[in-house]
Amino acid sequence: MKRVYFIILITFAPTALMAEMSDVRRNTLINICTTAQKSSDMGTIRNLASQLKDTKRPDDIILGKQYDECLLIAYGEPTPSVDLEALLKKINETADQLHADCRSLLKASPEVAISNAICKDILLK
Predict the structure, then answer these.
(1) pLDDT of 7-30, one tens digit each?
(2) Following DSSP, what letter does each residue of 77-109 receive, concatenated?
(3) Is the pLDDT of residue 53 over 80?
(4) Cα separation of 116 and 100, whole Å?
């Protein structure tokens, strides 16, 4: 029976220790990055940020703020992702509305429609 417990301990202990080491390592990297910021060592900051970017943000408020600061200094403001499908839909809707408005303008005042650069391009295509 003792042998079974020993095998279980050997099997699962490294996994638990590695998870804890990961948090310890992440926190150490954050602290080093904070120190590098004080000396304006951009090379170290970028190196540490590249190691931190794929790790989980710490739950601790202070460490979380330092984590964010390190990534912000290294990479700048994150660019918001663009929903391409929504953007294309909006462009197509705007283009359809523009075509309809230019045709309405053409009916109301052909001279103005043709002299308007945008409507002229749309109507002459």
Answers:
(1) 444 445 444 444 444 889 999 999
(2) SPPPPP-HHHHHHHHHHHHHHHHHHHHHHHHH-
(3) yes
(4) 14
Q: Which residue is listed with tokens 């090379």? A: 43
- Residues in contact with 46: Cβ distance below 8 Å, sequence separation at least 6, in sequence order: 74
- Among residues 58, 66, 78, the alpha carbon closest in space to that of 37 is found at 66
**Structural tokens at position 67:** 């984590």
CA dist 45 and 36 (Å) reads 6
CA 85, 96, 106: angle at the middle one, nearest 5? 165
The token pair at 62 is: 């202070």
Beta strands in 1-125 (DSSP E): none
- Angle among Cα 124, 115, 97 to the nearest 5 degrees reads 60
> Look-up: residue for tokens 């053409």?
106
